[in-house]
Amino acid sequence: MRVRLAAACLAVALAGTPGVVDVAGPEAHAAETDGGELPVVAVARSDAGAGQNVVPNGRYEFAVHGVFRYDGGTAAYWSVRSLPAYGSDDLSDPQRFHWRRGNFENSGFGVSEVSLAVQDRGELYTTLVADEGTGECLCTNARELDPKAADQWQTVYATFVELPAEVTSVSMHLDGYGTVVHDVPVTDGLPEPQVEGDTVLAGEGWPQAPDAAAVQQAADDRTGGPVWGLFEPSGAVDGSWSATRSGEEESIDIAADVLFEFDKAEITSRASAALDDVAAKVKEAGVGAATVVGHTDSQSDEAYNQKLSERRAEAVAEELTKRLPGVQLTVEGRGETEPVASNDSEEGRALNRRVSVTFTGGGR
Known about the structure:
By secondary structure, this protein is α+β, with helices and mostly antiparallel strands. It folds into two domains: 4-229, no CATH class; 234-360, CATH 3.30.1330.60. The chain is 16% helix and 33% strand. The radius of gyration is 22 Å and the shape is elongated.
């Protein structure tokens, strides 16, 4: 059983380049199966071009069906199929049957990295994860999708906390690599029939969404909470620091690799310019208090990382106090517990090694 799309892809991302999809409206898209017509609000392609956790020449096509709010939760449904590797139309090509992996060990092509943005509320809803240690999520486990049907449309899902009743559409980040679909409609009630299992060919039903109790438990356990703020980014051209703002809160991340030598907590001479910039931003905000938080990657054991993060936060706070004598600084260390990227690659670990300076109430 294959889905026949009645519209061409709206956006095709080149290898390694994010794809952004603007929706022309539900009436512009349709998908037909042996079981009838499925709603399709947008289609897009996403290519994995580089990095340790992506498949070279892995190419995927998405058909977004919609977002469905139900009692106690929200489910996003879309279908995905693999495309031939570049330069090959051979169905036996093994690259054709590889699914991209996301940050979690069993998530596959970023299913657990899907998020929903409600821009007028400044909110980002993250996929719920039942066990962050194993990566088990309240979503399709792509490792269990049928590789023999990789070129066919298979319907997948991700679960979020229940969206507010007034939310009627969202922007949907599909793959954790920059493929975004805007204006995806939110419908009340789950589509039928709901079926169990991770392998569901399009038209055979909809992967079963978890009940309200499972959603609530996962929401309570979600690192950083299930709803995040949408941020306005800025930062240094050299990448030594970056700032994000959500409402009244601003957070500045300083790269630990600029601040410290490997495995050390003594400020380096090359950190001076970055610290000057951060102090200037805090002064500009006119706040009387800020929090300095140290973060590490997961390379060493948890207890060691916790201590290292504390010592690094204290070192940064000491330097900032010299530049900001009128600002009260609170110091914390959170070790490896709040990663912003995968610890499976050097690039991700470098992003996780950071010291954050956060404050609220800056006048803008």
